[in-house]
């Protein structure tokens, strides 16, 4: 009862807004600490977050996260072990590399998604030694913009299941395309408000056949009615031609190129094959 009463006081307090409630709900503040913060706030005129910081009850990172929630810009805290550190757009949203992703997002909005397209395939000519997770991080920055975003892992040849979002072992695209599961295999990530994920699922014996069937094209068409942005990750071109099937269905492709690891010949072959299938190559991202 006391905690509920305190929650109401924080909710209606003009200066604390929802920061105090967020800190309480996530256990960053105890009810007794929140009482002391409110008392100092009244006496000093400080904002709730400033008062909590001055008393040493919370860290600046806690306040930053609470403010991000207020402004609909969620991201992960550094100590969150539920997700892979490779999701740098969610863990380090103010870094230079994420700012570069936002610039890419702006270009894609103008040149592709703003033109009525919904799906975009991410393709790489060869299996680079370093997994850049471009598709996942690009999907995150679109979701941070408030776009209803879906990330599809269409790499049905990956020997080790992706565990970027802590969902390894969950059914996914392969089960959906083989009609062994329904649309419920798509997971909405509450921590990132507007982002949903469709994992690859179990490793099938016939990945190319699954992606070639009309079911995949129909799935993309149906999902386009629900999402504003669909980012589709694919296996490397030097491993399989699955990327061509996916890119043709998506209509547009963004290339992921690794400096000193991607041969010009392989890149040219991939671009030519994509264009022959009618998938527009929107550009490339060079990783150094």
Automatic annotation (TrEMBL):
State the CDD domains in the record. BY-kinase
Q: Name one GO molecular function term.
A: protein tyrosine kinase activity
Indicate whether Nucleotide-binding appears among the record's keywords.
Answer: yes
What Gene3D superfamilies would the database entry show?
1.10.40.70, P-loop containing nucleotide triphosphate hydrolases
For this protein, the parts annotated as crossing the membrane are: none
Where is it found, in Gene Ontology cellular component terms?
plasma membrane
Signal sequence, renumbered to the chain: none
Q: Has keyword ATP-binding?
A: yes
**Which keywords does the record carry?**
ATP-binding, Kinase, Nucleotide-binding, Transferase
**Highest taxon of the source?**
Bacteria
Protein name from the UniProt record: Chain length determinant protein tyrosine kinase EpsG
The organism of origin for this protein: Paludibacterium purpuratum
